[in-house]
Amino acid sequence: MIRVMICAAALVASTGVYAQTGTALPASTLITVTPNEEITSKKIEVGTQVAFSVVNDIVEDGIVAIPRGSQVAGTITWKTGKAIGGKSGKFEVKFDSVNVRGRAYALRGVHRQEGKGNTAAALLGSILVSGRSAQMLPGQMANAFTAEPIPFAMARAVPAAADPAVAAAPAPAPVRAPAPAASRSMVDSSLEINPR
What we know:
The protein has 196 residues and is mainly β. It contains three helices and 13 strands; from the N terminus they run αββββββββββαβββα.
């Protein structure tokens, strides 16, 4: 009987009937990103569009909601150049959106990058020494956050009764174990020395 139940369960599982259920990555989920190419305060202006990539898979309920490498769009919102007297260049990039499976979803967050200043020149008040430009290199990480839920699909098994082909299939006949044979001696009675 147990064998029959196992066979029936295997038959239902082998039909491969699945349905898509919708779920979503919640807003305010942290996403770590890195620039696709060098961003430097020497070459950018306010309004410049810059590209980033998602560093790690973003997983929700065991499903990858945002795959690693998904593209993130950002915009330079503020910039200062390096200045005399040891002041360094600075810029801020605002994260606008992440592209997930062909659709853009809003992000929020700002990253500020500063160049290294020349402290000695700043202390001495030198007007001949300038600071360094701000730069952000590929591999350097920044944090952004989802600004809206990002939906993703999850497969789940459909109950067997929902599939008419499975419901209409006749149940297999129970398989019975063979009846135990009557016990008999394993010694040939003609070979016995003292017959009983």
